[in-house]
Design a protein that fits this description.
- With 132 residues, the protein is mainly α.
- It has one domain (30-128).
- The protein has helices at 16-26, 37-42, 55-70, 86-89, 109-113, 125-128.
- The longest helix is centred in the middle third of the chain and has 16 residues, at 55-70.
Length: 132
């Protein structure tokens, strides 16, 4: 007899993106991409044409590089000081980015690792905000 309640031991199948998002929710954040040193180091934003001519982003890139060298292993700089990993931290603080330029998010290892192609929007996180 079917009770309509389904099998209580049956687990719902989630996509990789849903699983990672659920893990981040458990950690108390609604960001899909973890703000970690390894993700910062893999991030391609520093090479992106969107912020190539941004004086603000270039200054932050230089100063955050110096900070990263001096931080103990595993520690991360303040997200406001890092001109990148926008898929984790959200919209860029710098106001002089050129959003008409080609976005290279799709070439990034972080983008690939977290399956961000499944999202909408799936690029220009510096403009649209973090992946959620």
């Amino acid at each position: 007899m079917d009770t309509g309640k389904g099998n209580p031991t049956e687990k719902k199948s989630f996509t990789g993106v849903e699983n990672r998002f659920t893990e981040e929710k458990v950690r108390g954040t609604d960001s899909l991409v973890s703000y970690t040193r390894s993700n910062i180091e893999k991030c391609m934003c520093s090479q992106c044409p969107v912020q190539a001519d941004s004086e603000c982003a270039q200054n932050k890139l230089q100063s955050s590089g110096e900070v990263m060298k001096n931080l103990p292993e595993g520690e991360v700089p303040n997200p406001k000081d890092v001109p990148g990993i926008y898929c984790s931290t959200g919209k860029a603080i710098c106001q002089d980015l050129n959003f008409d330029r080609e976005c290279i998010c799709g070439t990034c290892e972080v983008w690939k690792e977290y399956g961000l192609e499944e999202l909408d929007p799936n690029n220009h996180f510096c403009q649209h905000g973090r992946a959620t």
